[in-house]
Design a protein that fits this description.
The structure holds 2 protein chains of 2 kinds. Chain A is α/β, with parallel strands linked by helices. Chain A is built from 7 helices and 10 strands. Chain A has a single domain, classed as P-loop containing nucleotide triphosphate hydrolases (Rossmann fold, 3-Layer(aba) Sandwich), CATH 3.40.50. Helices cover 32% and strands 28% of the residues of chain A. The two termini of chain A are 17 Å apart. By secondary structure, chain B is of the alpha+beta class. Chain B folds into 3 domains: 183 residues, no CATH class; 70 residues, 2-Layer Sandwich (Alpha-Beta Plaits); 110 residues, no CATH class. Chain B is 55% helix and 14% strand. In chain B, strands 1, 2, 3, 4, 5, 6, 7, 8, 9, 10 and 11 form an 11-stranded mixed β-sheet that branches. In chain B, helix 2 runs antiparallel to helix 12 and helix 11 runs antiparallel to helix 12. The longest helix of chain B is centred in the C-terminal third of the chain and has 44 residues. Chain B is elongated, with a radius of gyration of 34 Å. The chains are: A alpha/beta, B alpha+beta.
Chain lengths: 227, 393
């Protein structure tokens, strides 16, 4: 089953001259896939991530998330889509500094309108899934970089989204920790999560079964390393 | 498939947003607190003062007229008929009457003090019913009666007693009135309606006549009349008490002075409330400023929240509520502060404490409205931030 489909997607940022960040991208992801999008900086990776994750709309072409064409959606509906279908992981983690790990993860459910006790319960479960069951009440400044990224990953998966997007998830981590995070993505994928990682780190990308290369807003190769 | 943010979570986000920068929140709230405190204190103090004033007026009555028959165009020369008081009491609505007459003498603590140092005190011959007529009481001793009016005894007004340095009647003090020693038998309480009485000393008519040749021609008549006909009485009194020179007669209503003072106080009150309102306005601008700054600083937080599924409306609500909360905290601080000032002031001045609840409700409403207004623009800006840009590295 396809959870994400891009058809002739372009994204042009107006200006003089206009920037063609995406220049006709066709792409499809099936449920349960784990893939990486690699490319040098300026290749359009971030733009692709924003368009795929419904944070931004394409200039032309269609983006379908779980069968829903996002072009037709209002801001409210797009937000609803993000809160229910999509999880984001950022390079800088973007955790809220004053909150415990549990509260940070629970924040991932606040826009679902769930009661606080339920949010906390699910947050604890998600933290256990990423191996942080012993760090529930720690604040971000009491955690290592790798642990912070695990909290961010827990926040992305706490709502069981259809797709998880990770934007340079190991960009701020040393190589040993990067390995661990890559392993965690493997584990989560084995449990059924669909994960798309955007990175310029080829070593990280080499972990994943599917590798998509992007250059100048175009897909130059799309290979399944281990079918 | 919708995003939903429960109202209780909006509240939680607001508190959390402020708690993340507590110093800034407190400093910003102080602005509102000062404005609200000023307004609450001014309303409270003026209401307490008004309650007191109304009580005073009720006690003293507003149906008293003070009539100075006048001394003619050429000063002391002309005299009012001695029977002026009797004639005035024949006017229908007049209920009672009393009088005093200026004695041509000065009062001093003893005979060693120069005759010129009168301390601004007047010696008055008084009828024995004066105090009842004025509703003035005594702090010590008693007033003149039929017996003590015959002998050199004297009663001091509150200010007169103070200026003569006499605090109590133990042992019976004496004062010196132009060659004669008078024994002090009473001290009057303060009376804001009759400053002239406070600054006078009183002796009986018989003794005044014997020692200083004072006549019964009044220099002040105190007339109580039926409240409904007070104006009519005031109109006919001049011709009645001084038929030769009715124009020289001055009729005043001592309670008018209190009312005038109240009017002046109210103008001042309004000015102070205006100043409080300006303080509130300035505080509102400060809140808007701080909130705009906060929105700029929290761009990534806004981006992350949008990525987590917040709608524009959720972001707007979050910042709007934070602003309202900030002002609300300031408002509560201000009410506590203003209430404290009012209580302290009322206790200090012995006023009846009266803080109108609608004043409190109104100032809280004003604070919240200011918070909402100040938060509108920052909230709108926060919601307009495109999520993709806000999370861009």
């Amino acid at each position: 089953m396809t959870v994400l489909r891009l058809d002739g997607v372009t994204k042009i940022y107006p200006g003089a001259p206009p920037v063609h960040a995406l220049d006709g991208v066709d792409l499809a992801f099936a449920q349960g896939e784990l893939g990486a999008v690699v490319g040098p900086s300026g290749s359009g990776k971030s733009t692709l991530l924003h368009v795929m994750g419904a944070l931004d709309l394409p200039t032309s072409g269609t983006v379908e998330i779980d069968g829903i064409d996002i072009a037709s959606l209002s801001d409210r509906a797009l937000s609803g889509l993000r809160s229910n279908k999509i999880g984001f992981i950022f390079q800088d983690f973007f955790l809220i500094s004053g909150l415990t790990a549990t509260a940070n993860v629970a924040e991932g459910l606040i826009y679902r309108g769930l009661a606080r006790s339920l949010r906390n319960e699910r947050a604890k479960y998600a933290l256990e899934r990423v191996g942080l069951g012993h760090r529930l009440d720690h604040r971000p400044n009491q955690l290592s970089g790798g642990e912070r990224q695990r909290v961010a990953i827990a926040r992305a998966i706490v709502g069981d989204p259809a797709i998880v997007f990770a934007d340079e998830p190991t960009g701020n981590l040393d190589s040993a920790t990067s390995e661990e995070i890559a392993g965690l993505f493997d584990d989560l994928n084995t449990d059924g999560a669909t994960i798309i990682v955007i990175t310029h780190d080829r070593d990280l990308a080499a972990h994943f079964p599917r590798l998509i290369e992007l250059r100048d807003g175009l897909i130059t190769s799309d290979t399944a390393l281990r079918a | 498939m919708k995003s939903r943010l429960r109202p209780v979570d909006v509240v939680g986000l607001g508190f959390r947003g402020l708690a993340a920068r507590p110093t800034r929140a407190v400093l910003t709230a102080i602005g509102i607190a000062i404005g609200i405190a000023a307004i609450v204190a001014v309303i409270g103090i003026s209401a307490s003062g008004r309650a007191d004033l109304i009580a005073t007026l009720d006690r003293l009555g507003t149906n008293l007229l003070r009539v100075s028959p006048g001394s003619g165009v050429f000063g002391t020369g002309s005299e009012v008929p001695e029977e002026a008081g009797t004639m005035a009491s024949r006017i229908g609505p007049v209920e009672s009457i009393s009088q005093t007459t200026r004695v041509d003498a000065s009062v001093r603590r003893n005979d060693l003090i120069s005759e010129l140092e009168t301390g601004g005190l007047a010696v008055l011959a008084s009828r024995t019913d004066l105090l009842d007529q004025l509703s003035v009481g005594l702090v010590d001793g008693r007033f003149l009666d039929e017996a003590t009016s015959q002998v050199p005894t004297i009663v001091l007004g509150a200010v007169a007693a103070e200026r003569l340095g006499i605090e109590d009647l133990e042992p019976l003090p004496r004062v010196y009135v132009d060659g004669h020693w008078f024994t002090v038998i009473g001290i009057l309480e303060e009376t804001e309606l009759h400053p002239d009485v406070e600054r006078s000393v009183f002796i009986g008519y018989p003794v005044a006549n014997t020692l200083f040749e004072t006549t019964e021609s009044p220099t002040a008549l105190y007339v109580r009349a039926s409240p409904d006909f007070l104006n009519d009485v005031a109109e006919v009194i001049p011709a009645t008490v001084n038929p030769q020179q009715p124009d020289a007669v001055e009729v005043t209503r001592p309670s008018d002075a209190l009312l005038a003072r109240r009017a002046a106080n109210e103008a001042l009150t309004q000015l102070l409330i205006g100043l409080g309102a300006v303080a509130l306005l300035v505080a509102g601008v400060a809140i808007a400023n701080v909130m705009v700054m906060s929105v700029l600083e929290r761009r990534t937080e806004i981006g992350v929240r949008r990525a987590l599924g917040a709608t524009k409306r959720h972001i707007r609500l979050q910042f709007l509520f934070e602003s309202i909360l900030l002002a609300g905290i300031g408002g509560i601080l201000g009410i506590a502060l203003g209430g404290g000032i009012t209580i302290a002031f009322a206790a200090n001045r012995d006023l009846t404490l009266s803080v109108p609840p609608e004043g409190i409700a109104l100032s809280i409403a004003a604070a919240l409205a200011i918070g909402a207004l100040a938060g509108l623009y920052p909230a709108w800006r926060a919601a307009r931030i495109p999520p993709a840009e806000a999370v861009r590295k």
